[in-house]
Specification:
single chain; about 325 residues; two-stranded antiparallel sheet; 10 helices; about 65% helix; globular
Length: about 325
Amino acid sequence: MNLAFIPSPSTGVLHLGPIPLRGYAFCIIIGVFVAVWLGNKRWIARGGKPGTVADIAVWAVPFGLVGGRLYHVITDYQLYFGEGRDWVDAFKIWEGGLGIWGAIALGAVGAWIGCRRRGIPLPAWADALAPGIALAQACGRWGNWFNQELYGRATDLPWAVEITDGPNRVAGTYHPTFLYESLWCVGVALLVIWADRRFTLGHGRAFALYVAAYCVGRGWIEYMRVDEAHHVLGLRLNVWTSIVVFVLAVVYLVLSAKLRPGREEVVEPDANTVAGAEGADTVAGAEGDGAKADAGAADAGAEPADAADTADTADTADAEGEADGEDKAGAPGAKKL
């Protein structure tokens, strides 16, 4: 008889009047907030502006949720389209069922759109988000605890999770694979933060390290699970996915380090500098216009003086002419009319 175990909640949903509050959804939401909070701090530390991470997350999160659900439904289609199943259940995301592979893949598409709109390199943004994503997964895995799903083989270890009778499950104590993966993701986040500081990772390498490290843990944890899944050559489909994605992440790490060593010097255009430059141009233009105006006024003021000088010259010439005439008239031998 197992006297020590992790109890499961009697229900995964609480009702606030007519509003259902689901533990699975809360875990996902908490994870998103943690990822954005940590990602924002790391983005600012790399020279980015506050709020940029959240702005791009507005694109990435919805795409990620859709991608995660699509991957789950496609790889476990028999749960929704098999005999006696209701295909409408495929849309009931609150009942569990998000594939991290699809969430990251389609979430990256959403992030790419957001980054492109802001003129930001996607790899730099992904590097800032990498440890936060791992922590988000650590939080999200507790949603499986609320739903009593994704546990491992039966065990009598003191940290076993107690599962009660329900649809597609048998009461007993099992390996809490959700807990194993949650702790592993915390370790992955710490690894990425340490490696990023130690080796100054850039151009997407921090994100690639997160992917590779997560795949290592997901592979052995997935092997322990007993929930229904497709098998290929004796291994669960997600084990093969972990192997393939791990290899791709390592290849990217190696090639990226050779082709683009170091880290991005500028991750986001500085709007303040641009605004300052525009302001300087405006001031310079105003000063130039003022100088032109002063020059014009000087020219305008010079014209009357020139006219007066001309008049004075004419008067002087006339006076001199009259004087000459008088002198000639008074001279000896001059004829008088």
